[in-house]
Write a structure and sequence with these properties.
The chain contains four helices and three strands; from the N terminus they run αββααβα. The chain is mainly alpha-helical. Strands 1-2-3 form a three-stranded antiparallel β-sheet. The longest helix has 28 residues, at 3-30.
């Protein structure tokens, strides 16, 4: 097992979880815990910071049932990290995907475990998009990268791997050369 690779995967995951938790803490503090309070209109009418608590899963679905999906979040997070650590030869894109997936799952799991709900704060007001957080962004990035990779593989184009040996054609002399 490559210790540097393992440290990078775990360290990056922890840094992203830390970022998620810091942003959530700052949102709760800035809004003084008041549900629905607008913290800042970064682009008034378009993009705002607003404190919302979500007891469901992505985009408010399954309200009140989010905590029951905690074992799924644990499995996803552990599975993604184990895969990434045990497969250091995989592409950098694969590792980024697994780290984002794991960090996002853990970030929201922490909220569910500690508060029984997830703190959300980013609101795209212009289209009234459901309020979301850093962990949701990480999970969405991972989902998009997984879908993109799957499409590439379906088309026969594996994602580039800088560590893979060159696939240049080998020319074999068959002895039919004219002199």
């Amino acid at each position: 097992m490559n210790k540097r690779h393992t440290s990078t995967v775990i360290g990056t995951t922890l840094a992203l979880v830390g970022l998620d938790q810091l942003v959530k803490y700052l949102a709760r503090t800035a809004a003084q815990g008041i549900l629905g309070k607008t913290i800042a209109a970064l682009w008034p009418g378009v993009f705002e910071l607003k404190l919302v608590f979500n007891k469901g899963i992505a985009f408010g679905m399954l309200q009140g049932k989010g905590i029951w999906l905690a074992p799924v979040a644990v499995l996803i997070s552990v599975g993604a990290l184990v895969y990434s650590i045990r497969k250091p030869e995989e592409s950098r894109l694969s590792h980024i995907t697994m780290v984002c997936l794991s960090a996002g799952a853990v970030g929201n799991l922490i909220d569910r475990s500690l508060f029984g709900q997830v703190t959300d704060m980013f609101w795209i007001r212009i289209i009234d998009f459901p309020v979301f957080n850093v962990a949701d962004v990480l999970i969405t990035i991972a989902g998009c990268l997984l879908a993109w990779t799957a499409l590439q593989e379906l088309q026969g184009k594996k994602s580039p791997d800088r560590n893979a040996p060159s696939q240049e054609p080998v020319i074999v002399n068959q002895g039919n050369e004219s002199q």
